[in-house]
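Page header: ASSEMBLY MODEL / two components / 374 residues total.
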Amino acid sequence: MNLNLLAAGIAMGVGAIGPGIGVGIGVMGALNALGRNPEAAGRIQLLMIVGLAFAEAIAIYALLVALLLLFVVTGNNNFAPVK
Amino acid sequence: MEEFKLSVSLKAEPLFCLGGKKTSISSCSPDTFFIVTNSTLATILFATIVVFLFWFGARKAKLIPGRLQAFLELIIETLYNLVENSTSRKVARVIFPLVATYFIWILFANWFSLLPGVGSVGFIHEVTDDSGKKLQELVPLFRGPNADLNMTFAMAILAIIIVQVAAIAAHGVKGWLKEFAPEPIWMDWLLTPLEIIGVFTRILSLAFRLFGNIFAGEVLLAVMLKLFAPAVVVFYGLELFVGFVQALVFALLTLTYLAMVTGGGHNEEEHHEDEHNKEVVTSGEAGQLAA
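Prediction written out in full:
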């Protein structure tokens, strides 16, 4: 059993829980604000996108760790040998 | 039929090692003084295209624009309104070129890296994996500029350096240093190191956010091709969207940092009222004049 592959799976899996919840909360806040003040739709949309980018970045860090484990760490046999 | 290896490389593969030789598929011998990677090549090509596009569109600027000029004007005007709504008119004139360049360059770089041929046309090398099997590996000729950490790190470092310079230009060196010592002064033994680390965190987050999104998108497309080819269409659309959003986010974050550092939060509200009132008045007048 190759622990690197297992670690990659766990890294991405667990690392997506937090950002998933964060994105949901962010969009909920944006929709609430939109419901109260439909005129500010443009500004709210923009700020929501920025907030989502911050939350999404954490998931990307987890993805990067997973990709590092898969493609850069040696010893992953036939999946992606590094020479 | 030869067997192909799914070739995913975190580093950009070098095409020419000037001064040395290629030792393996992704590294050069230590005496090379300049490495030309496939990402470098793509950066030069795409940057030339973007610069040429905008130069050509602005060359003979007519009062009633032709199609290319109208399209470019649409982009520029939308961006300028965005910048002006976040900062005052005076500051917007200064920082607009930087924010607009970041957005346009990252957008075109991300979208060009989805063109057929980028990342899929290149040279074939033969490698042997651990069990002795001979596989063919592809070294692409072009690779998306933002899929290389060097590019995104350079842009992030430059952005944050410009933010600090803007802070010094707006408030002087003393004002800039005061930013690192926020309000409860007796807490500054903790807050000042945190603020300093915060500057480097911004660089890292900007760089890795863009790199992670674009590189993971490339890996996703490659893996989906290998697993289940028709699904690539859906992920292609996702990559187009992600490329746009990441360009927008990078430019918007640079804009936000600059606005925070030049305007100060409590001034923004008043400026916002003024800008909104001005816009309403002028569009009303323009409507009456046109009618």
